[in-house]
Amino acid sequence: MSRSLSSGLRSLQPAAFGADPSGERLARIRRSPHFKDGVFQNPGGTARVRPGSMLDFGKAFFDKEQRPRRAPQGTVPVHATTLADLAKPPVTGLRLTWMGHSSVLAEIDGQRVLFDPVWGERCSPLPFVGPKRLHPVPLPLAALGPVDVVVISHDHYDHLDFPTIKALAGTDTLFAVPLGVGSHLEHWGVSADRVRELDWHEATRVGSLTLTATPARHFCGRGLRNTQHTLWASWSVAGPEHRIYHSGDTGYFEGFKDIGAAHGPFDATMIQIGAYSDFWPDIHMTPEEGMRAHLDLQGGQPHGVMLPIHWGTFNLATHAWSDPGEGTVAAAQATGSRIALPRPGEPFEPTAETVPSAPWWRTVAQPPKGGWPTTEALTAATIKVEADTAKAAAHGTSEGTGEPETVPAG
To answer: SS3 of 271, please?
Structure first.
């Protein structure tokens, strides 16, 4: 009777839940050096949320005074990219098109890589509840044209989107995914021979590109039971002429330096800088931490372009909608780093002489008290950071250096 009831309950689960790993895939997971005590382990120990109840988060998230700040006040200026635009090869051999959130089309050395494609209206297992898009997708999925490989960072709904994967299952694209995520894809109709499933530090070749799954500090899960049996990853993609990096979702950790030493420096990094919170300091980076990660990946030098991702499309945290963009601008100014600020759907070439740099979100965001920071204010902040850093170095302490707060591992 219980077996029959269990089968019945499974049949009622949304298809978007996917499927748990089993068989040889599960055996491979259990052999992974990163799998211990029945779960995948984060670098540096288990990532925790800060002590506090969901009630505390709910009060902050639904606060009537703060809620308007967490969404655009007007229509987001999405760039009208067309198939004809993307059909022209990039002049420099490298072009990125941010589609919103963490979805990026990378055209690199003659091949096309699509990171974390989310074309669905909500990041949710159900079509009528859950965070809804704050702007439309820049162009239909079919208008992208052929894609050589789809890269997935982890199995959360805002990165592994059921309707998008179902649409891509009907193409001949390959999928590069972290260990265990292939179970979801095969459940949704992707043939096993099109799935390249990697543990951290493993690599696969797609044409002239080498794709390497690199560590990240996050977690997984999308069903009623979060079994922690699918891995999360960041990704390095190296071609004959260019190198790029996609962070997926991650908290800051020292391993960025190792990734940069092994696979960098990168012509462009795509770094998560949104949906951060004091409620989960270990699993998402602030803009300041994101810039620190970018510099770590580049060997400490302001090399290449940083593209901020994981913001602007879904309302997933309590910070203002514009804060990730503003924080990235300030962090770039403070460190002398080069950033790209394209509107969703706006292609740009990271190694070109110029990249999009206007804070486009200010036209539709609620201004902060006192108005938007001026160039003079950002310069003053830069001078203060440099002075604090010099003072701390002179006293042999990290006070005032912008170092993120240390949170003990669970």
So the answer is: strand
